[in-house]
Design a protein that fits this description.
Elements lengths: L8 H26 L8 E6 L3 H6 L3 E6 L9 H12 L6 E4 L5 H10 L3 E5 L14 H17 L1
Parallel strand pairs: 1-2, 3-4
Helix pairs in contact: 1-5, 3-4
């Protein structure tokens, strides 16, 4: 933008710096918040493997039914692998992504007797006017909901 509108370059940079500072503060607060999650509950269970970077940033182990969206989602083999790992953990809840069908996670919830704590965002934002309808609010939503689920 600075090249296209050099007259307002200072404003663009000021807004960018403020937004980066806001995101940095959110990240710092989340790292502090997640430190209270007991080690044996640091397992984020989702449908797809979209939370690897999130999990690495907050020292949580990701567990998911399938790696990426495919036509063979929630196969018996995939479900058996997740069930086996869940039985070895102290996980209190599951999460379902807003952008995928909840069918496999609902089945897993029933089989394991674990509630689905919340919908979380992966590939999209919430609808305009709803919580999570911009990047910052979507990240805050995910951080808050996942933290609440892991410590409950």
């Amino acid at each position: 933008m600075k090249d296209k509108d050099p007259k307002n370059a200072t404003d663009y940079q000021r807004h960018a710096d403020a937004y980066i500072a806001k995101l940095t503060q959110l990240d710092k607060a989340a790292k502090s918040k997640f430190s209270d999650v007991p080690q044996n509950q640091r397992l984020l269970v989702t449908s797809e493997g979209a939370f690897k970077y999130f999990s690495k940033a907050y020292h949580i182990t990701p567990l998911y039914i399938w790696e990426i969206n495919t036509e063979s989602q929630g196969t018996p083999e995939q479900m058996a692998t997740v069930i086996s790992k869940l039985k070895q953990s102290d996980v209190k809840c599951l999460f379902v992504e807003a952008s995928v069908s909840p069918k496999s996670m609902t089945q897993l919830s029933k089989e394991m007797g674990l509630p689905i704590k919340s919908i979380i965002f992966t590939d999209s934002l919430a609808k305009k006017g709803e919580a999570g309808d911009n990047y910052y609010d979507m990240m805050k939503w995910n951080l808050d909901k996942i933290h609440q689920g892991l410590i409950s």
